[in-house]
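Lecture notes, continued. The same structure-token format from the folding unit now serves as the input rather than the output. Read the line below as a description of shape only.
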């Protein structure tokens, strides 16, 4: 939500887009979907990537529609509108908020599982390893090991379920 104003400008040059052929249809689409954007901006993402992208970001007065220069340079006006329709859909469906909530739940569950796994491991081997408890700094290598096992397993599971093309 603060990224368009405070973070993106650190890495990229962001300028107001003044081409009504591009901005008018986008702002019309935004108004039709209840998006309070008043301006369309361009970001020089071609410095980092060849990917074509756009976004609707911010909150309140920081609300903005941003197109990257790759999209503007390589896409037709209809393709730009299609990309913006997709991005506006993310905004209208509150995907940022749902994603944030989902991530928070994942963190809570992840830390609960880590806490359980640490306590189980320490009750079994803690005395042998001379680790007094979860608060002992000597537990850090075990935290790294358990976290690595979890992410390795999770990634392997995702790779297995991903459709092959």
């Amino acid at each position: 939500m603060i990224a368009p104003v405070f973070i993106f400008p650190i890495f990229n040059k962001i300028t107001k887009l003044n081409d009504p052929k591009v901005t008018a249809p986008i702002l019309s689409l935004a108004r039709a979907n209840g998006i309070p954007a008043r301006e369309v901006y361009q970001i020089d993402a071609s410095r980092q990537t060849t990917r074509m992208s756009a976004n609707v970001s911010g909150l309140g007065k920081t609300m903005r529609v941003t197109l990257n220069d790759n999209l503007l340079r390589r896409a037709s006006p209809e393709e730009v509108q299609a990309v913006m329709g997709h991005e506006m859909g993310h905004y209208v469906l509150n995907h940022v908020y749902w994603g944030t909530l989902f991530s928070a739940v994942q963190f809570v569950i992840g830390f609960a599982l880590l806490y359980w796994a640490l306590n189980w491991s320490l009750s079994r081997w803690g005395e042998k390893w001379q680790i007094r408890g979860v608060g002992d700094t000597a537990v850090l290598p075990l935290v790294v090991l358990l976290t690595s096992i979890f992410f390795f397993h999770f990634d392997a599971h995702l790779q297995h379920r991903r459709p092959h093309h």
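Point for the exam: The chain has six helices and four strands.
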